[in-house]
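Duplicate of #3305? Posting structure anyway:
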């Protein structure tokens, strides 16, 4: 049956169960239901000694840079370090802002439960200062180093594809 995984659990039910939702977002969702929420987000571009990029695969199956929404009161830098630690079990030093990206359709989605979200992402370049990349939470299924030319062959999110194309083309923002 479409939308089913092994064990009879639906993809939507598995995703809703594992999808992290902050208390802030939960409170907003109680007020606005599935309507569009727009929020700031961050992502980290981390390279190894061979120039490969660090990707994380979320439990719903898509690959992305370590990334996520900012919490209220959190700076972009704090959010980037927190998300990278949560998703990939590593501490990072932020080196520079690679770019700021957003807009439709790449930075908008509808979750399996019907919640709509859109965001603008600050993409940081970072280097690992402590830890070995491995899944760090129940949202992350796998981490992997991937060469630029191979990254486009992964099942990456639209926003990650957009940012990766901008990195490849040396563009820090969309005109």
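Output from current build:
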């Amino acid at each position: 049956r479409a939308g089913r995984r092994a064990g009879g659990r639906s993809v939507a039910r598995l995703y809703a169960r594992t999808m992290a939702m902050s208390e802030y977002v939960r409170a907003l969702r109680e007020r606005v239901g599935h309507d569009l929420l727009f929020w700031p987000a961050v992502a980290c571009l981390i390279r190894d000694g061979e120039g490969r990029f660090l990707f994380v695969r979320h439990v719903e199956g898509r690959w992305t840079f370590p990334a996520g929404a900012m919490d209220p009161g959190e700076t972009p830098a704090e959010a980037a370090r927190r998300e990278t630690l949560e998703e990939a079990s590593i501490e990072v030093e932020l080196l520079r802002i690679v770019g700021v990206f957003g807009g439709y359709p790449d930075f908008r989605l509808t979750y399996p439960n019907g919640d709509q979200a859109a965001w603008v992402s600050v993409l940081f370049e970072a280097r690992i200062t402590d830890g070995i990349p491995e899944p760090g939470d129940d949202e992350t299924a796998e981490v992997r180093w991937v060469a630029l030319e191979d990254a486009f062959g992964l099942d990456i999110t639209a926003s990650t594809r957009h940012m990766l194309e901008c990195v490849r083309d040396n563009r820090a923002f969309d005109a």
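Confirmed duplicate; merging threads. Confidence is low (pLDDT under 50) at residues 1-18. The radius of gyration is 16 Å.
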